[in-house]
Amino acid sequence: MKINLPGLLIEKLPSGNLRYRVRVEKQASKRIILTVTPEHPQFMEVYLAARVGIKIEPEATAEERAIRGSVGWLAAKHIAALEQDVKSGAASPLTLKKRKQVMKVLTERYADYSLAMPTSKVIELRDEFSATPAWADSIVEGIRSMYRWAAERELSDVNPAAGIRRIDQGKGGAVPWTADDLRKYRNKFPAGTTQHLALTIFMFTACRIGDAILLGRQHETMIEGVRAISWKPRKKGSAPVTIPMLPPLYKATRAVEHTSKTYLANSKGEPFATPDSLGQMFRRWCRDAGLENRSAHGIRKAAGHLLAQEGCSQYQIMTIHGHTSAKTSEIYTKGVERWKMARDAMAMLEHMNW
């Protein structure tokens, strides 16, 4: 193979084999022997590393292949640490998946930048994806989180993503389901179907999709003569949840027959492998029912709003949703409580002598 790259030296050895060496940029007297030939799939990585003075093995980790002190190096360290957190149960696989997507976008553009990359580059990256504002904001948040992680470990004293505003002014995340949405879905998928069971689980437990793929009869218990369902949410920082198992949920879990240890099973009768696999399937079911832009998380939000409308306090909603901060549950009660206060206040004026 004929190859001509800056600084690449090709030498024929007495054995007849070729040896490849690279002159380090700005250090003409320093040469690094390459451990692979041009036919190797990682040849360019090894060559480019040698040009900046780094010798790497072809099977080196992403961190070892990256330039130390670069954005790519930090991203590789961050992902490696997050993978360990997933193995230990300290982080969710879904978080890892999303963070890998963010790091891929970041390193494709700025891998060789210094850790102290300018904030303007992060803004450029955000604006590049402005057509999908939620994803653009997720990229910025992922970068911001990586730098927070780095600061805690004294790897970086800057955070170029700090203070960058969101561009998704939106829509408040997932769309809460309405009573008509629920009715439309149940008309399409009657009791006894997996689709109906999924909706019932989301509605009567308000669980996240990452917990829905795990829930089963092993989570049922009796407390003071009342059948309850109890689980520890997978999301980091969530509180354990124990709630009564209402008749609609109990009936739905018994109406579907399969051998899986979980309530929900895929077409093969096995538990869903990942939250994403159930999420994609559930969105397909929603579309089949004529419901666009609906998701499982929208049911969780709907449950929160219904609980608030029925008079539940934010602390009661906390226990059902597994929140550990009252502020998180306040989003469901704030509007309802303000309306009740306004209604009571106006009632005091109703019989005023005017």
UniProtKB/TrEMBL annotation:
Q: Which UniProt keywords apply?
A: DNA integration, DNA recombination
* Pfam families membership: Phage_integrase
Q: What InterPro entries has UniProt attached to this entry? A: DNA_brk_join_enz, Integrase-like_cat_sf, Integrase_catalytic, Tyrosine_recombinase_XerCD
Tell me the ranges covered by the Tyr recombinase domain, including all copies: 172-347
User: What PANTHER family does its record include?
Assistant: PHAGE INTEGRASE-RELATED (PTHR30349), PROPHAGE INTEGRASE INTD-RELATED (PTHR30349:SF64)
Q: What is this protein called?
A: Tyrosine-type recombinase/integrase
> What is the organism field in this record?
Thioclava litoralis
Taxonomic placement: Bacteria, Pseudomonadati, Pseudomonadota, Alphaproteobacteria, Rhodobacterales
